[in-house]
Write a structure and sequence with these properties.
This protein has about 240 residues and is of the alpha+beta class. The protein contains 7 helices and 9 strands, in the order αβββββββββαααααα.
Length: about 240
Amino acid sequence: MKKYLIFVIILLVTAVTMSFAEKGPRISFISDHHDFGSVLQGKTVEHTFVFENKGTEDLWIKEVTTSCGCTAALVSSNVVKPGEKGEIKVSYDSQGRAANVSRTITVVSNDPVESVKELTISATVTPSMHTTFNVNESLFSEKCGACHFYPALNKKGKELYDAACTFCHGRTASGIDKLREIDRDVIHEMIKNGIKGTEMPAWIKDQGGPLDEEQIRSLDNFIKGEAVDILLDKQ
């Protein structure tokens, strides 16, 4: 009898917990990542992320942002009824890009459990036979400068990382864990001169970038020191 009562109590607690979990709006994506595979440089590719409101109240999509100006995202509807589906159509412009790329789409909703959801897209951009790719000319061009060049001007340390580095390396300290394992001088050279065959440009001014030696050194210090226990999205 005692075992039976315990079993009934467990069932009741489980039922109440599940009922509570289902209350309110709930956003659920079929998939939160899409790989475009090989993309010829200059081509624009598209993918549609499908989501469903699995909750009991209206789901409100408050904001959809992308990590770079080369990526655009459009939501089908800002309000999705319980049981209904919505779409976020994402387009990626590979003009002036090369090598392996990854971009993030951030979806903010009124889901009380997961109010911020990150979607990712990736691709391997291959330059055409008639194109000579220069990552500095691409990222620091007039088209992309608003995201990658001008925000970095006159900034140092954490402020500089927030403005110029979070597009690729993330806004939290965990986004640069691997960098912390690298020697400080190597990090300095990577930031200063870039990494060939990747989207990492040369940030130093004499190679077309927006930074001077002092600013780059401030990034070295931040990555190797201050960033260890700091969440970059907190002031």
